[in-house]
Amino acid sequence: MKVLRAVIPGRFQPFHKGHLQLVKWTLERVNEAIIVIGSAQESHTLQNPMTAGERILAIRKGLECEGVDLKRIYLIPVPDILMNSAWVAHVKTYVPPFQYVVSRNPLVKILFEEAGYSILEPPPFDREKYVATNIRLMMIKGEEWKNYIPRCTAEVIEELKIPHRLKKLMERD
Amino acid sequence: MKVLRAVIPGRFQPFHKGHLQLVKWTLERVNEAIIVIGSAQESHTLQNPMTAGERILAIRKGLECEGVDLKRIYLIPVPDILMNSAWVAHVKTYVPPFQYVVSRNPLVKILFEEAGYSILEPPPFDREKYVATNIRLMMIKGEEWKNYIPRCTAEVIEELKIPHRLKKLMERD
Amino acid sequence: MKVLRAVIPGRFQPFHKGHLQLVKWTLERVNEAIIVIGSAQESHTLQNPMTAGERILAIRKGLECEGVDLKRIYLIPVPDILMNSAWVAHVKTYVPPFQYVVSRNPLVKILFEEAGYSILEPPPFDREKYVATNIRLMMIKGEEWKNYIPRCTAEVIEELKIPHRLKKLMERD
Amino acid sequence: MKVLRAVIPGRFQPFHKGHLQLVKWTLERVNEAIIVIGSAQESHTLQNPMTAGERILAIRKGLECEGVDLKRIYLIPVPDILMNSAWVAHVKTYVPPFQYVVSRNPLVKILFEEAGYSILEPPPFDREKYVATNIRLMMIKGEEWKNYIPRCTAEVIEELKIPHRLKKLMERD
Amino acid sequence: MKVLRAVIPGRFQPFHKGHLQLVKWTLERVNEAIIVIGSAQESHTLQNPMTAGERILAIRKGLECEGVDLKRIYLIPVPDILMNSAWVAHVKTYVPPFQYVVSRNPLVKILFEEAGYSILEPPPFDREKYVATNIRLMMIKGEEWKNYIPRCTAEVIEELKIPHRLKKLMERD
Amino acid sequence: MKVLRAVIPGRFQPFHKGHLQLVKWTLERVNEAIIVIGSAQESHTLQNPMTAGERILAIRKGLECEGVDLKRIYLIPVPDILMNSAWVAHVKTYVPPFQYVVSRNPLVKILFEEAGYSILEPPPFDREKYVATNIRLMMIKGEEWKNYIPRCTAEVIEELKIPHRLKKLMERD
After folding, report:
1. Ranges of residues in chain C whose predicted pLDDT is under 70
2. Which chains touch D (3 or more CB pairs under 8 A)?
3. How many domains are contained in chain A?
4. Could you say which DSSP state residue B117 is in?
5. Is E106 an interface residue toward A (CB < 8 Å)?
6. Does the pLDDT of residue E128 top 80, yes or no?
7. By C-alpha distance, which of E61, E76, E34, E22 is closest to E150?
8. Where in the numbering of this chain does the Cytidyltransferase-like domain appear (chains A, B, C, D, E, F) (predicted)?
9. Which of A119-133, B79-93, C113-127, E118-132 has the largest mean confidence?
10. Domain holding F64: CATH number?
């Protein structure tokens, strides 16, 4: 039987418990999930503090601790391309063959639909609670950001000193 | 204890038994190996027939069948940057923190050395026998290329019809 | 006698009746008009919904129905270049030799003037009425956008389902 | 009835009588032909002497004199993208919707086939006789290049002084 | 003895008396100052009116008139790179070997610190008074911008007609 | 009186005594010479071993020792642009206003001529003797390369260990 794969695109700045639910939900529907780490070239900004490599490490350790089978997961960084209409082809180049895309984002959905892919639209998964922008703000303010993030992901983020980086980026010059 | 990681850069067009030996040799020396799939943007040429995503799939299935612990492996595509002196920083962006580079390539060694990394120089591993250029030629001529490639990598390559793609690229217009 | 040509730069998202007047006005002054479709790499956003190819089709069919002689028209897509001071040279590369630029845009005028071209500054042509941003908004709201657009351009836009694309891009994720 | 369109990709350095036959052959099979002027960013080299804009002018005037109906022709410059697997999506962005590709080039055929397009493979049309490389050489040597090129295309090329440019590029420094 | 060098990154739109103090302060601490003219590709906008070459000329003539020893100064334009984590390596490519970075900018400091450089943090030097944004506004309004700028820098800026360029960019289309 | 400036484009891999003669020859004809260090993004190859910053340092120290007045010299790195027809505009962005170009290179001459600049064609200056390619070869072979290079340029090149870098790049992997 053919292996079914779904792409999960995101920036994962940072990977949080909502994302974790999304990955688990996807693995109930396909054989393998391809987590596409978008805007891979970005880092060291308030919007995108982590490098692609740091995000890969944080996601992987998080998934592993939560018992997700890493053999069913691909973690693939994809840099931005400044041409929406070629973005799907660009993503396709970087990842193994796939049939589905998991996303609620209108642009992602329209681009993959026009390219002939099926969309797996997931439920919103407490999206008021798990919001990456808010979590980055909590890091800056020194609030309890770790509650919103898988335990081992949080450990990696601390070890990499991402909250410290965010605080420094907030300083006035 | 700190996790030791080594980067193994290559184009892997295709991943062959020499590469497999290299990965095993590396895993005897560090905790985790980061296979950097270089020239990730290239595909559909005689030199670089496979896309980055196809190479990821082929390497991963090959490693898995050979009993390599995938939890100790990162497979990360990195596109070319047209500036040698920024290449190490570029690779660093895409991968988790690492201490070593596994390579015999003079340019790779000089660039990582100047950036302060330690080089792990592997033995040549039958390099007269396992040569990607020759393997691609065998694919074109219909010769026994599968002997030179890990079994499950070869299966993926067949399923993806890479020899067929190479043959078509060789046709006269 | 030397053929006189004028460049008309714009994004044409979408081409409207104000643009049509501009083209006709230009053809009264030169032999051939070169419509430069700028930001050619952009599409699938609220600001730039149409691809360059879709814009070419929509403009051409619009001009044809309105009786404009296509033999006197060039429709040429030009992608952005991230360097204002090289933009004129960039445009020159993509288009046949020309002597004039038709524009009221301050940046366009300053760049072409510094490069030694003559500016043909057109009258404003009901510019309160024909505003591309408003027309895109009407498409989203389902209002009477077709009144503002040449008839056959509107037909192409409907056939390409651009209003539908815009509505989808407006959805919440 | 749906309008049938075919893409004819080439560099057209320069457009010759073989290309003219190709366009005519295409117009017998579809309603509209889209001539894609590839490597649009290239010029002023021995391989690619003409700019995209110069090529557009030369092709258009050539077609017009030969009685080809310009209303059925699109002339669209497309710059190179350094990623074969995204090239078809890139071309699609720049051109109106199409169903066919006219080409004998193996890479072009494989890329469009993988993207789901039908290939119209034309006959070779005296390809020993009409070879762009040879025609450029004749220009350099001052030989009878005009026999190989549509009459009005040749006139444009002379007016643009392309043979002179080629000769200057051949000078020793 | 080893030559000590410090990099001073900025956009210098325009170079003002605060910048001049910064250069002098730096020359009291190292042998040679490398003025890195960032966003070198930008020009002809309200934020970045001057080209890199114009900025080089304006800074150099300003420093010379103020008695700064040009033999101790490097003026080097560096275009943007869209990858923060590779920016330091990018800057290193363009400039002679250096040990220090002179900056109060949080992003600049964090990036150079992570790359192992020492930061020389200068005092704020009347930064309420010398603000490039305000000086550009004064140019637009025709106010007394010359008081804020080294005398010969101001002369170059006038000769290059930068205030005129800014005013034209502010016009309505 | 207007300041006369001439651009001297080159790669300067490395700067040799022929280049020195060229600079002196230029300074007899104009007020200021702008040395454009082309292919600025290149380094660490056999063709282009030095970074732009290393070349700037080597040229400057060489000129200074030879008594050239640095106040009349600009040393400006310019990265490649992949579009010949926009190259002159690209160079113009990076350098102060100029009237002349000093070059014997056919492509450089044709591009600047088409852009309306005057060419100052220098004599060949022992060009059989001073050939950058040969000098790099001498560095690799350990031969007497220093005879061909201004004394202080040679000192910088030694301090930067460029011959060592070249030798390492020549090693077999």
Report:
1. 1
2. A, B, C, F
3. 1
4. P
5. yes
6. yes
7. E61
8. 8-136
9. B79-93
10. 3.40.50.620
